[in-house]
């Protein structure tokens, strides 16, 4: 049973590292150099998600090698893993909120609704996932990971509640994205809108499936394996959000509808462009033809 947890963890990290090197060239091209290399909120969140997920799991790997008899070290690693999960989910939620607010032209109601929803998700996740079990654990374990998994069996309902909150947030963000991309006028910016809808659908499909799997594993699996899907869930969320951000800076979408008088939605920097052309702070803007919008 412990070997299954180890294999799932290693496979998740291998996928994360593989995707990092697979997309490193795009990251350099679209976030580091040229006119794309200006830092703002979006790029800072991108780098936080990218490198915290890549480097943050190194200490977590120690769970499989630490001596479980040193319980204080096991408890520290378990607390660190919980903290990492919450921080990554907050970063991903902020990036998703920026996409939605930009897509809806930073309208006050969508900004307030999205922020409140995001805060609720963070509070629910923090309350449920952080809630510690007060039950003393006296069994002898093979590793710190088995120590943590044993604790998880006493916290299953808390963890299910936390991940259910994440699922609801992702579902609402997907519905908002789908509604906006379907109702926007076709024509200028259609390539970008199609990409946003495609990426949003793929993101929700993969992450929601993993989240539901994680919840089912927490409820139905052997106690030793109940927490095994947490790492794949976080890793895939991070990878998918990285891909979404990279796709928004795809040079092939450059110059979409630049010749129109437009209302520009800056996806990543919350800066509104006041004339035609590309925004100074970000490469991919949504341009809506004012005439089409008034039809």
From TrEMBL:
The chain crosses the membrane at residues 6-27, 39-60, 80-101, 108-130, 158-179, 200-221. The keyword Transmembrane applies. Residues 9-55 form the DUF6533 domain. Keywords: Membrane, Transmembrane, Transmembrane helix. Coiled coil: none annotated. This is DUF6533 domain-containing protein. It comes from Agaricus bisporus var. burnettii. The lineage of its organism: Eukaryota, Fungi, Dikarya, Basidiomycota, Agaricomycotina.
């Amino acid at each position: 049973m412990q070997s299954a947890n180890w294999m799932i963890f290693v496979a998740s990290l291998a996928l994360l590292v593989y995707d990092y090197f697979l997309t490193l060239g795009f990251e350099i091209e679209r976030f580091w150099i040229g006119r794309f290399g200006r830092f703002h909120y979006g790029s800072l969140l991108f780098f936080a998600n990218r490198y915290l997920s890549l480097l943050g799991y190194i200490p977590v790997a120690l769970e499989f090698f630490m001596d479980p008899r040193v319980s204080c070290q096991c408890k520290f690693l378990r607390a660190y893993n919980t903290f990492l999960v919450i921080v990554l989910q907050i970063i991903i939620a902020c990036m998703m909120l920026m996409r939605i607010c930009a897509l809806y032209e930073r309208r006050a109601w969508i900004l307030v609704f999205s922020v409140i929803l995001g805060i609720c998700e963070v509070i629910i996740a923090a309350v449920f996932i952080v809630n510690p079990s007060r039950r003393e654990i006296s069994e002898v374990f093979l590793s710190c990971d088995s120590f943590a998994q044993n604790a998880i069996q006493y916290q299953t309902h808390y963890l299910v509640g936390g991940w259910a909150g994440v699922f609801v947030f992702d579902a609402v963000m997907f519905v908002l994205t789908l509604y906006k991309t379907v109702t926007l006028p076709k024509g200028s910016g259609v390539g970008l809108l199609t990409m946003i809808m495609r990426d949003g659908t793929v993101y929700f499909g993969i992450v929601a499936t993993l989240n539901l799997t994680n919840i089912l594993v927490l409820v139905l699996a052997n106690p030793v394996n109940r927490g095994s899907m947490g790492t794949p869930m976080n890793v895939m969320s991070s990878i998918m959000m990285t891909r979404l951000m990279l796709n928004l800076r795809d040079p092939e979408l450059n110059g979409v509808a630049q010749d129109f008088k437009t209302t520009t939605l800056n996806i990543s920097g919350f800066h509104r462009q006041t004339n035609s052309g590309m925004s100074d702070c970000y490469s991919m803007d949504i341009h809506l033809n004012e005439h089409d919008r008034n039809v």
